[in-house]
Amino acid sequence: MKNWKEILENQIESELREQINIFETQIELKKLDKIDDKIFAETRLRKGVYGQRYDNGQRNDGERTRELQFPSGAKLKGPETVWDAPGMLRIKIPFGAFTPTQLRVLADCAEEYADSVLHITTRQDIQYHFVHIEDTPTIMRRLGAVGITTHEACGNVVRNVTACPLAGVCHDEGFDVSPYANALTKFLLDHPDCQDFGRKFKIAFSGCSQHACGIVNMHDLGAVAKTRDGKNGFEIYVGGGLGAVPHQAKVMYDFLPEEELLPLSQAIGRVFARLGEKKNRAKARVKFLVAKLGLEEFTRLVEEERKVLPHDDNWTSYIDELPAWGETPFKESSILQDRNGSALYQQWLSQNIIDQRQDGYKVVVIMLPLGDMSSHQARKLADISETYVGDNLRTTVEQNIVLRWVSEGDLPNLYKELDAIGLADPGAGSIVDITACPGTDTCKLGIASSRGLAEELRLMLTPKQQKLDKAVRDMRIKISGCFNSCGQHHIADMGFYGNSRTFKGYKVPHFQVVLGGEWTNNAGSFGLAIGAVPSKNIPKVVLKLTDYFVQNRSNSKQTFQEFISSRKKSEIKLQIQEFTEVPPYLEDASYYTDWGDPRVFTLGDMGVGECAGEVVSLTEVELQSAERICFEAQMALDEGNLEDAEEKAYKAMLRGATALLRKEFQDVSGDPDDIVSDFKEYFYDTKIFWDRFAHGKFGKYLLNRNENPPGNWTDTSVRQQIEESQLFIEAAHSCYAKLRDEEAAKVKGGTIS
């Protein structure tokens, strides 16, 4: 076995080398149980090492398990101890830029230490899954030797800085934001003012305001290129974020000179570290601090901090190097002479090719289903890149890869070579180019199979793609395995996030349907949930809603987002109503399994079976009633009745709390204060309402609303209240299911006669 530590000793920057050596020592200390679990967890997270779900037929209780055989031939050993069970390693790719040399090393490490898959994330990172922690220092050294780090890819720090993958070649950009993203990445990496955050901090750059490549509206800090009087600068956004309850970023500065970009970011980091929430993780993002203080006060505090910052030459030193920045074409431009070819080639030309502002050159988008690329494909792609584009590759926030500076005349041969390795699927940026988080495949928080659903939808839609109406073809679908929006479901035309429902003793995988999100204009607006549908019915919902859109839109130019915004929510909900029903288990057991997983989603021996004709419980009826009231709140919001909408959102939470209280106690007061008080005493304080996903934060939504009724109403605040109400109800469903599980376990164990 190669001793990579010795081989690469002189090829890694000294600071990174020292960090890796320290982490390796910490691993050894953890094995000896000489380092606190919480300390080690934060340490490994900051090095990009995550735990992951590992329940696919194997035990995770400290016993050695069978080996997994992967299609590539690579093998993974089962966990010998709980703490070192195979996990995930996230690799930072600042603003998505990487080279063929780096890609080869990434491919080799994926094959040797993981499952031979490079997974592209929505932050332009690359992830490995099923990696043993003992191997991570070696992986880090091999990556470090080619200029890649995993440092601060995870944890309560500044995450990977993202940027438009077309930066520098886009027709509509103000200027190339790449060197600014690069400078800010280097400046903030391991910066002492960014080490004491309560939660993660995300930054994005965009060259323009109208497209979605940078999606700055959903970031803690966003920068849009802008020029004024011939000088470069940025429109600065703060306080954005998706997560369970999305917040749109607010404009902090209409124009910030380029020399102030780094010191402003440092000042924001200081304010966030000092005033940001530390105890309640549910409220620890910058978006909550901005909402709490107000934009004006937040800005004032940042400006006060900026005044006292010690001068740092790094703030502006990179600006002197800007004239030398920029990619150069690997080959001379040439004109595409022959446009003939197969139907798939023609489709690829129309969907996967983007015109550069430089004459004779194109950007080629490689669509990666589920964001995955095999080690074999990656190595071949590195060879192809060196032939056609040199070092000009980038990942995208839609989990794809782009080749930049492709000479137009090379497109036919490039297509053939990509097609030979399975990387020439047409449909980039279309309805078949579906974004999905890992979901239940590997994420510990996953409720439903986002990747399984994404693959099913892709297989269903791909053969229909050319026959679809253009407006439907251009739609975005994004899927998350839970409410946390890692799949960005809030900003899709059609978004879905995983949840579950209990039906006659069985848990059934569901997805909440979120409609009306706006992907363009840098994630211009967020959608709202209209109802939960069994996972197996989601493909039918997609077909029904797209047909409904085409048949009822006002004109052929109306987008799906515009159409949804123009219709009443009750009318839209009616379209999916038929798909919300769950057939009895004995009638159709497929509803009780998730996509890509043949196992029953939940235990089948809970309570009375279907043959006994069990009636729906009062709790289920009241929880459904809570959903109805929450939906009525959405309709009131659509109609501009803000006060009524907010009140209904509050009443929906009260109804959900009442449902749980009535399950445990026959008599429940109808007074809101009594309901909240009893809920707090019997469900919140006792942590019965807490679960592994939210740790009680959704229960806090009800308590906060009861303690602090609003004195005024805005569209944004009411929309947030509705989101919180929906999440409270989801948590109430989970709590009820947990109570049912406990009762069933007692019956099975003979403790209840």
Protein traits:
753 residues; alpha+beta; Alpha-Beta Plaits; Sulfite Reductase Hemoprotein, domain 1; 5 domains; five-stranded antiparallel β-sheet; 24 helices; 24 strands; globular
Your description of this structure?
- By secondary structure, the protein is α+β, with helices and mostly antiparallel strands.
- The chain has 5 domains: 4-144, 2-Layer Sandwich (Alpha-Beta Plaits); 170-324, Sulfite Reductase Hemoprotein, domain 1, CATH 3.30.413.10; 343-420, 2-Layer Sandwich (Alpha-Beta Plaits), CATH 3.30.70.3340; 437-600, Sulfite Reductase Hemoprotein, domain 1, CATH 3.30.413; 615-753, Nucleotidyltransferases  domain 2 (Four Helix Bundle (Hemerythrin (Met), subunit A), Up-down Bundle), CATH 1.20.120.330.
- The chain contains 24 helices and 24 strands.
- The strands form 6 sheets. A 5-stranded antiparallel beta sheet has the order 1-4-7-6-15. The protein has a 5-stranded antiparallel beta sheet with strand order 5-16-17-14-13. A 5-stranded mixed beta sheet has the order 8-9-10-11-12.
- Helix 6 crosses helix 7, helix 21 packs across helix 22 and helix 21 packs parallel to helix 24.
- It is globular and about 75 Å long.
- Mean pLDDT is 87; it is low at 56-84 and 603-615.
